[in-house]
Task: structure prediction
Amino acid sequence: MKFELNQYHRNISKDELIKDLRMVAEKLNKSYLSRSVYEKNGKYSATPYIRNFGSWLAACDIAGLKTIRNKEDFLRISDEDLLNDMQLVSKRLNTKSISTKDYSEHGKFKVQTILSRFSTWSEALKKANLEQTDFKIISNKDLFDEIERMWSKKGKQPTTTDVKNGLSEYSLNTYIRRFGGWRAALLAFVEYINNDEDYEKAIQEETTEIDNGKKEQNLLENVKEDITPRRKTSRDINLRLRFKVLQRDNFKCCTCGASPAKDPSVKLHVDHIVPWSKGGETVMNNLQTLCSNCNLGKSDLL
Ligand SMILES: [Zn+2]
Result:
């Protein structure tokens, strides 16, 4: 017997396709089926329909389904509308989090519409900037961390399109509600990164203090206090410093040049050149950007 691979969905008859389309419409009690709704509920992908009937709508037409959405669908409730209404309900009920039950009693739209748009209630709450039942609050720092992650990932300034395309863990709405707009969010981020003067000054002052101390001790011979320099900086590389180092290094590995912008699997780390444990300070000129591979190689050598 000849061995053959399964003709996977290749030879489905037109009748079979139409039958399944009708079945899904019946099951969902809908007279209009979008591709994505069918694909979620049907047996096949939209591809064989398009191949056999020329277009998705032509297939729907043959199956006796509507080829335009009903008025409500056609008016296209935007995500914004749904989220705004969720917020309205939360305000009306004077709570920071609302349940599906709250919404179904006080909201303008169907809970189902929100769920089908955002897949889970928790996700919808997050997008509406409402609190979860576990009350996880997104801090500005969380948002800055995320902007930095996106910036590094892209190797340049992230755009609203990046956020909409899911590069950000938080929705565009979250940034807009917090800062007033995407550009404002970026400005706040840049300001946050640049507002590092105090930190730099503190290091400078401390260094001067120690130098002065040394001079004094040289003068006073009888003082035999140990003046081995103590660590002036903490081992922890804060977000500001991290971002500045990444930016200086063009979001590329200093050793091999790998960048997440070119290869999404690349992960960049900011690392001490002279290890902190060996007296290296956490300052710009003792920090470098390395990819995971080079970073691992480095710690093996040390
Ligand atoms: Zn590398």
